[in-house]
Structure formats: C-alpha cells, structure tokens
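Input sequence (220 aa), recorded before submission:
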Amino acid sequence: KERTNGGYDAALRTFVEAVLADGELTADIDELVAGIQEPAWVTALAQALLKLTAPGVPDVYQGCELWDLSLVDPDNRRAVDFAHRQRLLDELDAGLPADEIWKRAPEGLPKLHVTRQALALRARRPGAFGPGAAGRYEPLGTAGRHADRLFAFTRGDEVAVVLPRLTATTGDWGDTIVGLPAGRWRAVLTGDDLDGGAVSPASLFATFPVALLERTEDRA
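Predicted structure, token format:
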C-alpha cells in the first residue's frame, strides 16, 4: 500500500509555488543560470566524451542525445522525438562546421555531434577501445599555468582525448600545453589536422570545446 505524508507534500508544494511567485528571486536565478550556462555546456560535453572513450562500456540513455535537464536519472521509457533527432543528424551529415555546431549549443547539437562522432570512431577502431594492449589507457602529460584544468589520455596508439575541467575559471590558457604523442592526428570533432608534441589547448579548443583525436596514416 502506498504511503503518503499529506502535510509534507502540502508544505513542499507551498514552498515551490512561493519560490516561483517571487519575481526578484527568479530574476536572480535566471541571471545566475545565464552566467554559468556556457561552462555547464562545456562540462557536459567533457563528461559525455569521457563516458564514450574511457575504458568500459558507455551507458547512453535513449533520448539523452541532446541536453537533458532532469533532476533525477532520466527515464529512458519516455517518448523520444526521433524525427527531430534525425533532422539534426541530417544537418550534421551535410557537413556543418564545428564552430556552427557550437553556436547552436542551446539546441543540444554539440552533444549529438560528440555522441555521433565518438560512436563512429569506436566502430572504425574497435581495438582502440577494447580490453587488450591496443586499447590500453594512458594519461597524457600536461604542463603550464592551467595544467590542472586539463584531463587527457590515449587509448592505445590510435586515439587521444583532451578535455577541459573547472571550465568556469579557465579563461586564457596561457602557457598550458598537453603532450600529444608524436605523429599526425586528425581532430574528429572539427576535421583539423595537427602534429603531435606540445600542443596548446587554446588551439585544440579554438572552434569546439573538447577534443577527440584519431591518428592518421601519416606518422612522424
């Protein structure tokens, strides 16, 4: 038999309604959210890419390919607007530039882009994400003023991931670098090509705020 606490439920409802009716308070909340919105998007992308590239099996909730603002675990039995997601995928297939994808962050398009590209990379290079030596996890070295605000690693010899952390306070990366293994790499999320070695996160994140790198055939 379901047990309820009518007094508690009523008090909670009264509190929530009072908060929503307080125009000065809701204006302050809106201002706070506006100030942290972009760092929150970047953090969410970093978490999504980490989930899709770290050792283990990624758990991708159906319907959470875009932003999801649930206060609890989302219910993956809810109806999903697949037609909308297919339209967005069609736009990505048409070759939207990375900076245009990021400009459409309010739609959740960057998260769909990260999910799509990371899963495609896993399909192309299954060994790099497997349990053997080809998929071994190795941290990448970082240095400079904001070295502690980078999280970077490789999967085997073929994939590298560079993510920002503490995104609300980073600002100018200054002299910060990440040590990318020697060779030629392609940034999967932007299409840019780059050489390994000491790489500035400012260049890696110039058009998109997280980096997923795939080694190309042209090795140094």
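Checked by second reader. Helices lie at 6-21, 23-53, 82-93, 98-103, 109-124, 201-204.
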